[in-house]
Design brief:
The radius of gyration is 18 Å and the shape is elongated. It is 12% helix and 64% strand.
């Protein structure tokens, strides 16, 4: 599934080259195009950050990379790749990742502070091992589900900035909450 999405993403990127060449006319000149990378901590199904021994679960690190543009100072589009890391426990093992497309709303509060909200679709792939009463089984599933997110962005619209984001993803019936810290670059 992810391989097919990668090929589709390359086709979309190639088709968007004429638009990218004219990004200053397509996207709002004041805010323009931005990209970012970040790390976060994913919790699966409201699971605690700590184990029963009060140790931090070290296998929940997530990371993401995203590229977006604002059509107006208030409305934008964003595409992202998200790696949810691994979840390992008594019930089995899960490794998941996905690509997303979102529509965002941005509220500039000051020259250097902007709040945002996103709603979009996540196309995901998950592999792992499950435990049944009599046996262990492997799985490789994919799907697509909606996601939601909010964020606060600190810095100028051009150059380096910092963003704090909170996203709620669904993989079938499994909720994954991801608070993250991101470096953004606007150009």
């Amino acid at each position: 599934m992810i391989k097919r999405l990668g090929i589709c993403s390359l086709c979309v990127a190639a088709a968007s080259l004429p638009f990218a060449a004219n990004a200053d006319t397509l996207f709002d000149k004041e805010v323009g195009v931005y990209g970012g990378v970040g790390i976060g901590y994913g919790t699966f199904e409201n699971e605690d950050f700590l184990t029963e021994d009060n140790d931090l679960r070290d296998d929940r690190m997530t990371w993401q990379a995203y590229l977006g543009g604002r059509v107006t100072p208030y409305i934008g589009l964003e595409a992202a790749y998200v790696d949810f890391g691994e979840a390992d426990g008594d019930g089995g093992f899960l490794d998941a990742n996905g690509v997303s497309a979102a529509l965002g709303v941005h509220w500039p509060l000051a020259d250097t502070v902007t709040l945002s909200a996103r709603v979009g679709q996540l196309w995901w792939d998950a592999t792992g091992t499950g435990v049944a009463p009599l046996d262990e089984f492997d799985f490789d599933i994919d799907g697509n589900d909606p996601f939601y997110g909010v964020g606060a962005h600190f810095g100028q619209s051009e150059g380096l900035g910092i963003a704090v984001r909170y996203d709620l993803f669904e993989l079938d019936d499994t909720d994954i909450e991801v608070p993250s810290l991101n470096l953004e670059f606007g150009f």
